[in-house]
Amino acid sequence: MRKIVLFGMVLSVSAWSTAQQKIKYVEYDLPNGIHVILHEEHATPIVAVSVLYHVGSKNEIPERTGFAHFFEHLLFEGSANIGRGEYSELVEKNGGTLNANTSQDRTYYYEILPSNQLELGLWLESERMLHAKVDIKGIETQRSVVKEEKRQRVDNQPYGSFFTEMFKRVFPSHPYNWAPIGSMEHLDAAQEEDYVNFYKNYYVPSNATLSIAGDLNIEQTKKWIDKYFASMPKGEAINLYRDFINLEEEPFVKRYGVSKTKFNAKDFLKSSDPEAKKLIANYTAKQIVIKRTTKDNSVLKGVTKDVIEDNIELPGIFMGYKFPEQTHPDAYALEMMNEVLSGGSSSRINKTIVEKKRMASFAFSFNYGLEDAGIGIFAAIASKDVSLDDIQKEFDGQIETIKKELISEEEFQKIRNKFENNLVTANASIAGIAENLADNHVYFGNANRVNSLMDNYMKVTREDIQRVANKYLTQDARVILHYVPKAK
Amino acid sequence: MKNIVIISACFLTATTFGQVDRSVRPAPAQAKKIEIKDSEVFTTANGITVILSENHKLPRVSFDLSMGSDPRNEGDKAGLSDMAGSLIMSGTTNRSKDQLDKEIDFIGASLSADKNSISMSCLTKHMDKGLSLLNDVLLNANFPESEFDRIRKQNEDGLLSAKSDAGTMAQNAMVKVNFPGHPFSDVMNETTLKNITRQDVINYYKSIFTPDGAYLVVVGDITRKQTEEMVAKYFGEWKGGKKYVASLPEATQPKGNQVTFVKKRGAVQSVVYITFPIKMKTGDVNQLPSTVLNGILGGGGFGTRLMQNLREDKAYTYGCYSAMNITENGSWMSAGGNFRNAVTDSAITQILKEFELITTELVKDDEINLTKSSQAGGFARSLESPSTIARFALNTIKYKLPKDYYQNYLQRLEAVNKDDILNMAKSYFTSTNCNIIVVGNEEILDKLKKFDSDGKVTILDEFGNPFKEIVKADISKEQLITNYLLAVTKSSSMKELTKKLKKVKSVERVSEMSGAQMPMTLKFFNYYLAPATEATALEFQGNMMPLSYFDGKTGYTSAPMAGKKDMTAEEIAKKQKEAGLFQELNYATNSTNYSLEGIQNENDTEYYVVKIVDGETESYDYFNRKNFLKEKSLTITKEGDKTNESTQVFGDYKEVNGLLFPHSLSMNMGPMILSGKVVKVEVNGKPDMKLFKK
Hints:
A: alpha+beta, Cytochrome Bc1 Complex, Chain A, domain 1, globular
């Protein structure tokens, strides 16, 4: 009997594996440290060019929050060879689209272009990396744009501050303490120098992953990458070059003790003056050390309960739990647990709290896995005259149930089907593939994880789900926020 | 050794850096020939053409089944096909709608239908289950009565909002003038909707959903052999009659420019479409160059001629676009936008000027280049979606396109030159034989006459039918109001009415409303307390929430997210004017500015139309000419250069305590529609007003 069960399991595992198509790619490092990932696929004559900079809000200093996100905006302003506002125009004019996003852990830029415009995409991204316009005019323009974004997305959004408030309490001693949008006062207080330094510290070849997917020829693409990216100065030499083009003679001499005139303006690295040559060699050898944060393995101490006043009419409750980092083996089971609790309209939380008991107009939970730690959040907006404590009791009841009882076979099968479907569609577009490869390289040190992801989820058992619920949904160590209407 | 490597690496880096001139922007490489695999085609014994496009990139598969019949004139049942389409997924003889939804969700599939097709997509391994669900719908859809009623109700609501939406009104007029007598010109209205029965829907489904002439496009991770097996298993037993074949009337350009006008009360801006039919069908060799022509003229983006002229240069509008619609059954060109009343005629002049310019002069190099590259990019990106490939495969077979039509699309696009554009414009375009459609305020009508070649403007109603002019009323406005008040209070004299109303101390009305955008039923509570107290509350998820309260002197309004707001002095003055059970009772004594517009025929019913003006707000009340009861009230408020319109419809008047109260209600504000029934009217009960006190 045991054998038959085992056999059945093996069969089902292999069935999963065949459902996932292998994504082939090549990867290598350039001498200056850029990690390159290329996925060749000719199904569609388009190509996605992306650069992931391993810098997010967690790399900011506590007095200068919001920088990483601000740079995402700033780096559309142009470069030494691209006029202000021309960046997007160039992409659109050539049949492409572009965008960018910033998280606690990374900043990600991409273009999707017709494949015959691949070289253009590489040039655009290399311009951004080598000598973007980081000047006061662009800073001022983007400062007002970012402020407007914060007004719209956080300040004027009912309950919009819950993310910030929750992270503040769940991560008291880690830079996840603040949100990527950051503080507008910090951005105002920052000097041009602060911005320039952020660019010099984090927007450097050794902190970048260039991930390209789509209709490309690997050999030709490598040649272009050599031309536009491998040609960039190595180590601190890139910042020497940046200072050379940005600084006036006097401050340059003050900083480096060598006149700008000694350098070859047309071909910086080929400067023949011995002093310049020496300086370039010294700075090339000098590695840029990027300050990394460390994993946050601390546990929450007891229950933190706070009341927050907001411009809202209906009270809301937000409960936060400390989850492990996204690379932790338990992350898969936690995601599947969340799917049982809150995945779609037939999920447990929605069925009971919203539909049957009508205690809340919205109720849901979600996982937020990050590089150094994770967080699990339960949230609900109360129906009129329903107390937040009663909603909390319902949440606690659901948590109790998933801790005590195995989920049903049918529920289990449904979420497995759903995950499989999601994973297949996640790699349906070349833009998705480029991003997934880059993410997996940076966070997991293994781009190839895109090919084993399904197995990781399918290995999760009903018992695993129960186990992680017991391990991480700690009722005696969590943050509970009550959002209440501001007193009038 | 290691040092040497580093040194040589530096050296290498240095030389390559020197060779890059970064100020030179890379030129595009040669446009790629698109690799679209040839699809395989076979036919089944029952008449289905199966088109298979294998693509094993992802373990997914999709089946798109579309019917081969020509569109049919629907006449006095206009809207039947759309209604049938929205009912196909309503359940089968084996499964209720809920069951069907649940089983689809379980395998993570999607299954949908419209008036001419049914589609299913899922992971390949769930193909059997997915197809068995599709098969169940295809063979056993049973159009339950309750769902039929629900969808009819939804359509009724939709018509209500269509009547206040200038864009829809312009579309309705456009199909009528471009395609007279053609199925394209079937526009649903209240009368045709009433004519549609459940049996009509069943008959439509039976006759149109037939294997004869149908196309089944299969795309994805599936082999020819599997496809044949699946088709035999799930489509083999599908039977039906011959497909419907019609010879559709050929649409022609009007002789000389013809102006068509649709009146929109209170409008501060007009919707303009300048349009004409084109003699071209899907797959025509000239389709591609014409698309480039349209792209230059106004087919999207800020750089087009229409945008540059009418938005950037003249600031007549926020957006002015053109569209070229090429279909197998009829094609047309249209250009236009929304324009302020004062510049509507100037905008028409400019659009016609652009039409003329493009038919007489060569376009510029940068215009054609920009349009071609942005269209090439859009085309290429669209190919990532399997549904695009499915559409190409179908078009290639259906319209007998050359096999490499889509493979060579980008090369042919690249080859389009300035002469081609001018030739296209000369062959298909006109600036002198256009239908000029304007939906707007009647006050601009005179300024439009100059555009009409014979000086006679055609006036249509909201649904594109000949407008029935309003006729002079046969009674005075005072008489009408008196007649209404007597009718609604079932009194024979004003004296009796006064006596009757004195006895009314309170009225509580409860109505249950629902709408397409609302998943749940909303319960509204309306209270009236003599002499002038009024209150409204909403029950939401078992909780009562006050919406408004007015005690004759002061009050507030309240919204779930925004909180309570005290009424302004203006709002109080307005409330006081309307105070009482029937606001019309006050007309004689307060200074309400109202007039009797005349008698208007709508949906074969005659109405007295009363216009009430209050500051920037205009209202129109419709009283049934037969019984004087109020059946509709339309309110238009102005906000800058925009107007907001809301409509209330009252019906099913029933007597309660000697007074008549409407028992069916619907209301719409823009696209938001609610309709329902009054479930309770209680006169002189003891309503609990605690909720409204602070």
